[in-house]
Structure formats: C-alpha cells, structure tokens
Amino acid sequence: MKPILSAALSALMVFSAGAQTGDRKIIRIATDNTDLVLEVGPNNRLYQTYLGPKLRHNEDLINLTWNQHAGSDGSVSTRGWEAYSTSGNEDFFEPALGITHSDGNMTTYLYYENSTQEEVPGGTHTKINLRDDKYPVNVTLNYVAYPKENVIKTWSEISHREKKPISLSQYASAMLYFNEPEYWLTEFSSDWAKEAQMSTQQLQFGKKVIDTKLGSRAAMHTHPFFEIGLNGPAKENSGEVLMGTLGWTGNFRFTFEVDNVGNLRVIPGINPYASTYELKANEVFTTPEFIFTISYDGTSQGSRNLHDWARKYQLKDGEGQRLTLLNNWENTAFDFDQDILAKLMKEAKHLGVDMFLLDDGWFGNKYPRKDDHAGLGDWEVTHDKLPGGIPALVDAAKEADVKFGIWIEPEMVNPKSDLYEKHPDWVIEQPNRDTYYYRNQLVLDMSNPKVQDHVFNVVDNILTENPDVAYFKWDCNSPITNIYSPYAKDKQSQLYVDHIRGIYNVLKRIKDKYPDVPMMLCSGGGARCDYEALKYFTEFWCSDNTDPIERIYIQWGFSQFFPAKAMAAHVTSWNKNTSVKFRTDVAAMCKLGFDIGLQDLTAEELEYCQQAVENWKRLQPAVMDGDQYRLVSPYETNHAAVEYVDKSKKMAVLFAYDLSPRFQEKLSPVKLRGLDPDKKYLVKEINLMPGTESTFTQNNKVFTGDYLMKVGLNIFSWNHNTSTVLELTAQ
Ligand code: GLA
User: Fold this and answer.
1) Which domain holds residue 649?
2) Which atom, in ligand 1's list, is nearest to the CA of 544?
3) Long-range contacts made by residues 118-121, C-beta under 8 angstroms, separation at least 24?
4) Which of 192, 408, 492, 626 has a CA 20 to 30 Å removed from the CA of 103?
5) Do the domain assignments include residue 414?
6) In 10 A of CB 172, how many CB atoms?
C-alpha cells in the first residue's frame, strides 16, 4: 500500500472522512456497523461503490471500483451507480434529479467539486458539492452518519445561477443502490382507522412506487416508511434489512427500481406529482431528510437503531418525560360545558393521570362548533358553552391538581366560519370549480405568510393568555382538494411543496418561543407520522381505532420506525367485548392515556386503571426509554408479545396477548431477549384485576436472564382476548 493511501485510509477509519488516494477520491460515510462508500470516477462524477456491512480492513476500500456494477452492454468502464443520477445521462433508469434549464435544455451532468466533514451532535456530517460543467447548477449532497445508532440521514440542496429560473421536475432526497439476489419490500398501507398495515412482496424487474398525494398530510393510504429485505423477506431477528423513512409531512414518493441486471435503486423524496418547482437563481431548494438504517439482525435491531436515534436527535424532547392524560373526545364528543369539564378534570386526578386534554368543540361564536360542520378557524372559546373561557378551565384544572391541554386544528377552516367569510383568499380552493369537502372543511393556504401568522397566533394567543396551558393536540383532518392558491399566483405548481414548508415555518416559530410545551401530532388518527414533523411534536396519535385487537397490529406496524415514547395510545370504549384490563395493557405499551368516562368503569376496573397508571409510570425507563423487542408477531401467530428492557437491564416488562388461539393449538414458551444472561430476575405478574389471583404458573419466581432467553416463559393460553403483563426485576 502506498503511504499516502494508508494515511488517508486510517483518517477515513477514524473520521469517516474523504480521502485523496493518489488519483482516487474515496468518501466513506460510516456508522459502527455500516459503510456507505462513494468514489469520484475518472470522469469526475460521483458514484456509490458500496453500501452494506462495515468493511473491516481499510485497504479493501481501494478494491471497490466505481464501475464494478456492469451494464448489460458489458460497458463496465463507462457506467456506474451515480450517487445522485440526473436526467438525460447514460444511466437510462429513474434519476434523482430532473432539471429543465432556463434555455429549455433538459440534461444535467454533475461533477465533483469538493467535500467537507464536520462533527455534529451524535455524528459526522459529510457535505459533497457537485456542479454541472455546462450550466451554473450546484448540488450539495448531505449525509449525517450516527455511528452508535447506525442511522444515516441524507438530503440534497439544489441551487443555480442561471439568468432565469430553472424547472425542477424531480428532486429526490437521495439515491441508494443494492446488488443482491432478491429484494423484498414491506410497505405500510393505511386508511382511516387502519393505519400501518404491513404487507410484503418481492420486487422484480421494473418500478414499484409508493406515494401519496394528500397535500396536507403525508399519509392516509400509506405511510412514509418502508423496509427492504435484502436477499429474502425482512425477518424480525435475522437477515439484512434496509429500513427507510422520509421526513416530509406532505406528498411523498418512494421509487424502487430493479434494473436490467438486477440491481435495485431506491429513490426517496417529495412526490413531484403536480409539483414542478421553478427555482430562482441563488435560491436553495433543500429536500427533506431521508433517514435510514441497515440492520444485519433483522427489523428488531433496525427498529431499536431508529428508536435510539429518534429519542436522542430528532423527536421533540426525545429524552424527556411524557404526560399521562385523560382526553374527552370518545367520552363526550362535542357535548360538554364548563361543569362537565371540571368534573372530568377531577376524574383525571382520581385516575392518577397527569393531565386533562380538552378535545374538539370548545370554539366558535358566530358559527359555534357543535359538530364538524362549522367553526374551524375561529379559535375563540364559545361563550355560551364555556363562559369563563380557557382561564376558567385552567383554574379548574389547577383546582383538580392536573395539567390542562387543548385540541386545535389550526391549518383548517370550515366554510361556515368567520375566518372563511373574512379571508376567502386564505383558503386552498379553486373558485370556479365545484368544491370537494373532506369532513366539511378546507385547508388554509400555508404558503401565504399571513396565514402562517394566523396559525402561529392560534397557539401564541392561547399561551399568552394562559401560560399554564401545558399541552396541545394539533390535528389535521382534511387532505388538499381543488388545489389552487390566490397567493401563489403563477406558482401554482409549487403549492404542494410551499404549503408544507409554510407549516414548518410556523412549527419552528412555536418551538422557538415555547420549547418546553409538549404537543401531540394527530391527523384524523395516525395520518401524520414523519420525522420532520416530529422535530416539533413529542408524540403522535396512532389511530382513531382504539379497539385493542386492531391496535396491537397498528402499534406493531408503527413500532418498526417509532419509539413507544412517540406513539400515543388511549384506553377507550372501542370493542367492549374486550376487558378494560386488555384495553389498558395494549395502551400501556405506548404513551398511555385514557379517553373514557369513569362512569363506564366498575369500581374494580377503576382501581385496576389506577394501579396500571402507577405501574406504567414506574416502568417508564423500560417502556419509554428502553429497548423494545417484538417477540411474537400477531401477523404470524394467534398471539402477540412485546418486551421492553431498560438500558441498564435491571428492569423489563413483557406484554403478552392471547388473541384468537385455535382449539388446543400448540403453545410455545415466549423466549425473552435483551436481558443480562448473568443477572437473576424476579418475574411478577402485574396489572391484575383487583381480587383476582395470577394464573401464570411461573409467577413470583426467580430465573436467570440466560434461562429466560433460552427456555422462556409459558405465558400463552388458549383463552381469547386476554392479556398478561409481567414485570422483571433484577435481583
Ligand atoms: C380527529 C382526531 C380525533 C379527534 C377528532 C375531533 O378525528 O383523530 O382524535 O380529535 O378529530 O374532531
């Protein structure tokens, strides 16, 4: 090895830095377990040469070549995996970037200029500057590698100095390539009350696209995340799997293309559907962050990578505590007054939760919000209903000794509202066409700075008048229909993008002014759940479907990408065929809340809930901040089991469910994971209904972690819809 090369490669090893190796320029973006290696080809363009398990020996980097992935024409010397492929080049497959230059030319070629690396919290940020040699177009590729969590986030910045604007027809966040015998995609399809449903298919030649066009929210029919099993369907505890998610709260698109020689390219980004972007000179178009991890031990490890990363670096107050709460939506809907709410606050206290959350229906005077037909946009308390306004509610909460939180849906408007009458031009709506309403409402035009001020003021006014308001549930029920903005004038094709950027402007202002106010992100259930929005929200509402059976599947799906701490789950009266215990145990696997009247509970059930809240609070180091292990899948068996272990491995909790076992079907022991094999754990059933004895035969016994992980516990039964919660305490 030449000395210059070896010195450069050891620098790479330590700093994941770029290296000039004689006439070769190699850029290594590394986590503890994964290497993404890029190289500048002899033509001065940038190629991906490797993405996979971390290479052990530095000298192997030079054996990776930019053109090793041959094309069908055998032209190994002229084609490679271009790191950010552009339209009009010799690649022939889906590019990341499509530009129409100001003179009408549609080709772009990007050449390497320079790159830098700097330390950022938790990781290393690599910036690679590329430039077209015929047009003054610049692209910066950004990669932040978080070594410990094995997560990489990547995005691009596009700018130019042409005399007139250029048109961006596609502008992906990144591009990744794989060369494996098989690729299996797991997607997360969705609908109202049917979020995060997992299904898997093999990718064959050609393209598979997952996208949404809802405008104001990323998801409804599918979510902005996916898994690719490399060399076989993704498995829970073994095999190589790419898990990726886009931080964008609007239209997104994932393109998976298997090419002529069986290589896969993954292209995540904003959906360019109806969104050709006219980019002015010197304006920087920054794409959303694409966040991914590659696990070599199945999705379970990949999820833990993402959970750890999110709590540390992305989720609002990711390392802070969460508030348990009592919500009133399922209990009262719109039908409440000051006395009813004051009574519910006392109930919240009695239940032992931290906060009362007032939901929809508290606002509007000219058009009071009696149902979902009117009032959205008029964020003034309905005087007849709540004469003392929010201050009286805050006082009542203080008297009850609970915190007070409130629901808003500030990006929306009902046509029956004062706001709509005063500012019809603030609404996304096509004046000369029939309007299509979704939940009787329309979307405000967030690209308009005046509308951004209005939305900011919804929160700011409430908090200025009532600094003790402790929490917001921020909803977004309507997708965008009839897309047209008077404000955007001739820039209509930018509206889908600028609308979402306007939302972020507001959320950023709110976070800057009120950094400590927790907020729940909600969108007609769980239709907003992406890692850009979650910079501003402490948690999201997973689904309006709180039937615990359905929730086991929904939570299983979301948990692939989000820590339990980010997932709000409430105990309600959905599916009364299941016990309150069962419903509570399912909700206790996430951020626990209740949305049920205490009148609907028997004395025993209430006592049970009080105990469950106390237990949940005690178990937070495991459930909220620990490692999650999905042990038994409801998709594959008639049972389910999920375990949480605190980081010191002193405390663990196992949630086990008998869903719909067959007659005398074989019951296998549940083998735990993540424990210290040499520690001894006392295993104790908790969350028992008052007056009932545990029927778990191994209750109150001590086992080594080794035994629990190798032999397991006989926790399942042939009962239907029953749950068992075990607390494990290291002795
Ligand atoms: C949406 C939310 C619900 C509730 C209602 C209120 O549907 O998902 O939780 O807040 O709005 O209208």
Assistant:
1) 628-730
2) 8
3) 120/144, 121/313
4) 492
5) no
6) 27
